[in-house]
Amino acid sequence: MAGYELYVFVVCLISLFSTLALLCAMFIIIARKEMQAIEFGMTDTKLVDEYIARVRRAEARNKKPREGHLLRGLLLLLGLAAILLFAFTLWLRFSEPTVKGSLAVPRVVLSDSMSEKHEANKYLTENSLSDQLNIFDLILTRELPGEFELELYDVVVYEYKGELIIHRIIGIEEPNARHPDHRLFQLRGDALRYSDEFAVEYSQMRSIYRGERVPFVGSFIFFLQSPIGSVCIALVIVGLIVSPIVDAVIQNKRRQRLRLLGFTGKFL
Hints:
The chain is α+β, with helices and mostly antiparallel strands. It has helices at residues 3-39, 44-61, 67-94, 122-126, 218-225, 227-260, and strands at residues 105-108, 138-142, 155-160, 163-173, 184-188, 200-201, 205-214. The chain is built from six helices and seven strands, in the order αααβαββββββαα. The longest helix has 37 residues, at 3-39.
């Protein structure tokens, strides 16, 4: 990790933990204020009215009230969804660029070099090649076939200076005296007039695109992979975890106060 990247990572980490600490402190302050109000009897009228209304509704249905169960279940589902989404974005960020096996690896398209058919690229219309990619599309990349199984007009992902580039093969130079052991591939983005300035070797290629994509979903994933996106989803996860705990503590305090006021029974 370069010096600047390390600096950004440390700053984001400090910001994340500071924000999470602030959020937890806010939850604690709100809970303490509420519990003090209950303990000193400042909410007695409200507590009694709510309790009586809850009992009447429960008796009308002839069962114990369960108003909070649906909300807690919904919060649990949202929390699990947020955790899974966060794990998915982390997997996308740190997954190996080379796809191996039958499992497809999603990638976010971050360039518009494949977004349309440039008029100079006659081979696109002549061969009915309509698998263009827009920026922020979410695509599925699959394991590369063998070097000599790659064909003209395949769309592949290759790595150059640490960056992943997705372009189309528009020319193949078979082994010759200059490179007797391997092929050289000429690649170009569909929206570009000129080919990439260098020939690409098979060893630089990481995966192949077979036309499987979800339009524009990648913009959301790209945001979640950013520092601010990671902070947002971390706040959601912490909020969904801490909120039910704080609510349970407050509800227990309310039940204790109602008992002091003389209310008993299964409806507490």
